[in-house]
Amino acid sequence: MAKIRVLVAKPGLDGHDRGALVISQVLRDHGMEVIYTGLRQSPVQIAQAAIQEDVDVIGLSSLSGAHKTLFPKVIEELKKRNAEDIPVVGGGVIPSEDIPYLLEQGVNKIFTSGSSTEALADYISELVGGQQEPAEPPKKIAHIGIAVHHIEAALPFYTDALSLELEGVEEVESEGVKVAFLKIGESRLELLEPLDAASPLQRFLDKKGEGIHHIALEVDHLKTRLKKLHTAGFELINSEPKQGAHDSQIAFIHPKAANGVLIELSQYGGSEE
Ligand code: ZN
Fold first, then answer.
1. C-alpha–C-alpha distance, residues 158 and 127, integer Å
2. Which of 27, 167, 214, 263 could form a disulfide with 181 if both were Cys (CB 3.0 to 4.6 A apart)?
């Protein structure tokens, strides 16, 4: 397969290109051909260079705070030259509140200063390489897990006071828990009770008491996702999917990855990777 060609450019007036040079090197290490335009390029120059160099993707880096005008201008100049099929990815010092605007303006993705360079390289090879689909976001909140001492005692609030429908109660031996699922719209509340004193959930209850225990996100391609999370340096509790309730495959991500929240990924149905 031909090498992916990336134009790395710094529009605007700021005079630091260490970040752009680091990114360029990381992309080269991933087998890509990188053309770096150097400092202080205008949107017109960037669009022209991208077309002349026949690149597959443009990476824009901005530290100057002018990304809100400069990034959309690059896209506009590409459009003027019928080259809007060249995707644009942005990074640098970009406040999160500016990201929705930039996406709306046609930037494919913004990587903030906290993003890993590996994530950026992976994204570009998926976007351009066509070997895999770019990772889809999780489909929905599958359920919110709530740790309780006794399901029987907890249920009346949910089923009587809130009128939620109790959908099922089952034991998940592998986790040492009994769970009750309460249907709420497209999602569920999952009450979790420890099966015995050795259950990890009992330790949670001893330490923190009853309360929210985890949030489960429904995903496809669980196995691939776990591999990518691991590569990106996020700590996993389960590096391989295991059997969950409701005929699902599940895996937990360490709370360190998600600001202290235990995240469960769950996959239902057939897809194998
Ligand atoms: Zn769960």
1. 44
2. 167
The Å distance, Cα 216 to ligand 1 centre, comes to: 6
Domains of the chain, each with CATH number or no CATH: 5-129 (3.40.50.280), 140-268 (3.10.180.10)
C-beta separation of 46 from 72 below 8 A: no
Nearest residue to 268 via CA among 246, 236, 237? 246
DSSP track, 151-191: HHHHHHIIIIIS--EEEEEEEEGGGTEEEEEEEETTEEEEE
Averaged pLDDT, 231-243: 90
> Which residues place a Cβ less than 5 A from the ion ligand 1?
145, 190, 216, 264
- For residue 229, the CA-to-ligand 1 centroid distance in Å is 19
Higher pLDDT, 131 or 224: 224
What one-letter code names the amino acid at 161? A
**Cα-only R_g, the chain:** 23
Q: Model-level pTM greater than 0.85?
A: no
Strands 187-194 and 211-218: unpaired
Find the 239 Cα to ligand 1 centroid distance in Å.
16
pLDDT of residue 1: 63
Residue 169 backbone dihedrals phi, psi, to 5 degrees? -130, 130
Contact of 144 with 215, CB cutoff 8 Å: yes
